């Protein structure tokens, strides 16, 4: 190739494109011939403008005289170094007389790499060419690596974008599991769902299991991220598939899921609060498996549904789960949540706590249920917790909706 | 009777960031068939689900007749142990002496 570089940008060893600048054509020609003998392709120029013109076409090395009529070697070096292609592989050698130390210092500042003393000694010239060849080849290697890095970086960015798309799609699937009020006859429902990252290990569910009963649950799978999220997605579906219609079935469902998790022989586990409500009959049942307790209102009277607790799902094969009955009359409102909500800290590092949640729910007791969700979201947004401390946050609030039945 | 194995957790937060190292330490120090472990959680101010999972794996590692006594459980840790009923499997003690006595029995 013309400039001594192969198609992939690596200089062929031995072929260095050089320019020799001297106002004395004979001297320029002499040095050019010496350089051709050293394996270079050398051109000559006898003044500033001609030299710059050839440099613009691309050379690897310039050997220039210092003293020239008009614009001298120093100006030529400054002009070459001042071009836009600051990283062009250009090695510059200046020819000076011995003893011109001040000139040499200025020349180094201007960007000269090497010096030749006049009269030019062929051995000195050979050393200068060898040095230029090494510098140019090294430069080409660096350029090639930079190109490879840039290309790898682009590939990584594309891969990351695809990955983020996948994660967003998965997060979208999780969102679609959230309770749909129109599919839940007999109750009104509100929820707050805030995964710590795009994908959370929490899952909120509510579904119509028939016979006028609704199953509801909050699952909190250990850890965060893709694995927790997939587990939580799966456990959500298993609970809905098993479709318990009564308290005993609900207990069996959790016991079955407990065994299923253990059979995977992973170390995953989940805390679960799960319950059934029968709005028409005014009753409900609740199981807390390693999960924070539920808060229940009957009118303005607030209480905690004391279930006695149970081990999380996925720890021990013979864990058993006992449903606790509670009253779910027309004035009831029940809230279940993950510990990410109670652990949520304010700017001073104080946790919201179970008491904080209870207080917040009491404050909006007389508000429509939709307002509860908005109030909690507002409270959370005012808390500016350290993002690294943040856990997935889930809250589910339900209350009977007997509107049609009570209508005259 | 030989001394129980003393495991002192030096992290203020026993969470996903330190759980793997903590688990490795347990694997190295508590060999299969070990019967008694004294777990000092005085330094731990916060424990997350992953940290709790390591405690459960310790329990499983020791098998059915292993005994774990916990000292220095602060309010947050204690709440988590109670919520998950692990307080029924660990002996929660107020001091190291009390824990050693509990492990002798």
Explain how this protein is built.
The complex is a heterodimer of chains A (408) and B (105). In chain A, 40% of the residues lie in helices and 24% in strands. Chain A is α/β, with parallel strands linked by helices and 408 residues long. In chain A, the strands form three sheets. Chain A has a five-stranded parallel sheet, sandwiched between helices. Chain A has two domains: 16-146, Response regulator (Rossmann fold), CATH 3.40.50; 177-406, Phosphatase 2c, domain 1 (4-Layer Sandwich), CATH 3.60.40. Chain A contains eleven helices and 15 strands. Chain A has helices spanning 25-37, 48-57, 73-81, 101-110, 122-175, 225-242, 247-263, 339-342, 353-363, 369-382, 403-406, and strands spanning 16-21, 40-45, 61-65, 91-96, 114-117, 187-194, 202-210, 213-221, 270-278, 283-289, 294-298, 301-305, 324-327, 332-337, 393-400. Chain B has a single domain, classed as STAS domain (Transcription Regulator spoIIAA, 2-Layer Sandwich), CATH 3.30.750. In chain B, helix 1 (19-29) runs parallel beside helix 2 (49-62). The termini of chain B are close together. Classes of the chains: A alpha/beta (408), B alpha/beta (105). Chains A and B meet through loops of A and helix 2 of B.
List the helices and strands and how they pair.
The complex is a heterodimer of chains A (408) and B (105).
Chain A lengths: L15 E6 L3 H13 L2 E6 L2 H10 L3 E5 L7 H9 L9 E6 L4 H10 L3 E4 L4 H54 L11 E8 L7 E9 L2 E9 L3 H18 L4 H17 L6 E9 L4 E7 L4 E5 L2 E5 L18 E4 L4 E6 L1 H4 L10 H11 L5 H14 L10 E8 L2 H4 L2
Parallel strand pairs in A: 1-2, 1-3, 3-4, 4-5
Antiparallel strand pairs in A: 6-15, 7-8, 8-9, 9-10, 10-13, 11-12, 11-14, 14-15
Helix pairs in contact in A: 2-3
Chain B lengths: L4 E4 L4 E2 L4 H11 L6 E5 L5 E2 L1 H14 L4 E5 L3 H9 L7 E3 L2 H9 L1
Parallel strand pairs in B: 1-3, 2-4, 3-5, 5-6
Helix pairs in contact in B: 1-2
């Amino acid at each position: 190739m013309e400039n001594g570089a192969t198609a992939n940008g690596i200089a062929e060893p031995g072929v260095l494109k050089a320019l020799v600048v001297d106002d004395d054509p004979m001297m320029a020609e002499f040095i050019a011939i010496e350089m051709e003998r050293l394996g270079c392709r050398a051109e000559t120029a006898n003044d500033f403008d001609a030299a710059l013109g050839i440099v613009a076409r691309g050379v690897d090395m310039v050997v220039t005289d210092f003293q020239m009529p008009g614009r001298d070697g120093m100006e030529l070096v400054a002009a070459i170094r001042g071009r836009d292609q600051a990283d062009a592989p250009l090695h510059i050698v200046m020819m000076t007389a011995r003893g011109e130390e001040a000139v040499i210092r200025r020349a180094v500042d201007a960007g000269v790499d090497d010096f030749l003393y006049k009269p030019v000694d062929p051995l000195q010239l050979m050393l200068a060419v060898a040095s230029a060849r090494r510098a140019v080849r090294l430069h080409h290697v660096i350029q090639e690596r930079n190109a490879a890095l840039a290309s790898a970086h682009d590939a990584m960015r594309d891969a990351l974008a695809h990955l983020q798309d996948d994660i967003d799609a998965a997060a979208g699937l999780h969102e679609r599991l959230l309770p749909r009020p129109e599919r839940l006859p007999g109750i009104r429902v509100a929820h707050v769902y805030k995964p710590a990252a795009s994908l959370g290990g929490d899952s909120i569910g509510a579904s119509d299991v028939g016979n006028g009963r609704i199953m509801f649950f909050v699952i909190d799978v250990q850890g965060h991220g893709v694995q927790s999220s997939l587990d939580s997605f799966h456990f959500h579906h298993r609970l809905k598939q098993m479709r318990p219609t009564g308290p005993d079935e609900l207990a069996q469902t959790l016991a079955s899921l407990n065994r299923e998790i253990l059979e995977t022989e992973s170390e995953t586990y989940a805390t679960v609060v799960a319950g059934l409500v029968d709005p028409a009959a005014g009753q409900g049942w609740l199981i807390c498996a390693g999960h924070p307790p539920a808060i229940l209102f009957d009118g303005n009277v607030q209480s905690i549904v004391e279930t006695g607790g149970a081990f999380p799902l996925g720890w021990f094969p013979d864990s058993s789960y006992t449903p606790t009955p509670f009253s779910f009359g027309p004035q009831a409102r029940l809230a279940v949540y993950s510990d990410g909500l109670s652990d949520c800290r304010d700017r001073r590092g104080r946790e919201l706590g179970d008491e904080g949640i209870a207080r917040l729910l009491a404050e909006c007791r007389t508000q429509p249920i939709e307002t509860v969700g908005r109030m909690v979201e507002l409270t959370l947004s005012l808390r500016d917790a350290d993002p690294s401390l943040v856990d997935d946050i889930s809250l589910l609030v339900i209350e009977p909706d007997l509107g049609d039945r009570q209508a005259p | 009777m030989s001394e129980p194995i003393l495991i002192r957790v030096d992290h203020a937060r026993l969470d996903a960031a330190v759980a793997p190292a903590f688990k490795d330490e347990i694997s190295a120090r508590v060999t299969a068939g070990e019967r008694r472990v004294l777990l000092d959680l005085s330094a731990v101010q916060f424990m997350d689900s992953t940290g709790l999972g390591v405690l459960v794996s310790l329990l499983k590692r020791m098998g059915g007749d292993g005994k774990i006594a916990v000292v220095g459980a602060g309010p947050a840790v204690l709440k988590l142990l109670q919520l998950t009923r692990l307080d029924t499997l660990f002996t929660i003690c107020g001091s190291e002496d009390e824990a050693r006595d509990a492990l002798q029995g």
